[in-house]
Amino acid sequence: MSRNRGAVALKVTEAVPVFAALGDATRLRLLGRLSVDGPLSITRLSEGAGVTRQAITRHLYALGDAGLVRNARRGRERVWELDLKRLEQAKRCLNHISAQWDAAADRLKAYVERETMTSDSNAGSYTTKGSRRVRN
Fold it and tell me: Most buried of 19, 27, 71, 75, CB within 10 angstroms?
């Protein structure tokens, strides 16, 4: 494995907890609320969520473990806010993977075009006998 591939594998590995945390619909909704409304308490995040405050707390700690949110005490409440740094890392990881797929698709397209041109230039040197192509 080249150094570059090793570095990419490390970046993807580092992003795994982020993607795992984002794989839950409730956590995605919490991140959406925090991105629109800014820092919120668990009480505010629980309003209209359809799950208990304890469930919201567990989800927030899971997001915190992934580095997606952070919290601070404000009086008797704990206020949660987005930590955009980890989201940016995940975005860079996805952009890198997307670029790899684009490059692979370009290589495949070039290969198919070369093969098509080669078979077109050789088309006159073959005849069909039954279901087989044989060289003239």
Answer: 27
H or E stretch at 5: helix 3-22
Could you tell me the mean pLDDT of each successive run of 10 residues in the chain, 136 residues long? 55 80 92 94 89 93 94 92 88 87 92 81 60 59
Catalogue all structural domains in the chain, each as residue range(s) with its CATH number.
Answer: 1-122 (1.10.10.10)
Cα 68–chain centre separation: 14
pTM above 0.90, yes or no: no
Nearest CA among 19, 50, 17, 16 for reference residue 33: 50
